[in-house]
Design brief:
Length: about 60
């Protein structure tokens, strides 16, 4: 894996129904009344989702 995994994303060893193994990436955010817990099969999608949960600086 060439890219580093940012804070807020965990690597999960996943077992599929057919007993094969795969890797998932979990994004878990708890801020005030905003709570999210999702898993993704692709690291890039998890990174994009994590970026979308953050508020822009100076935003209302």
């Amino acid at each position: 894996m060439a890219s580093s995994i940012p804070r807020g994303i965990r690597v999960i060893d996943w077992k599929n129904a057919d007993k094969s193994k795969s890797i998932r990436y979990r994004v878990r955010v708890e801020r005030g009344d905003f709570v999210v817990d999702r898993s993704f099969a692709d690291l890039e999608r998890a990174k994009l989702f994590l970026e979308d949960t953050k508020t822009p600086e100076g935003g209302c």
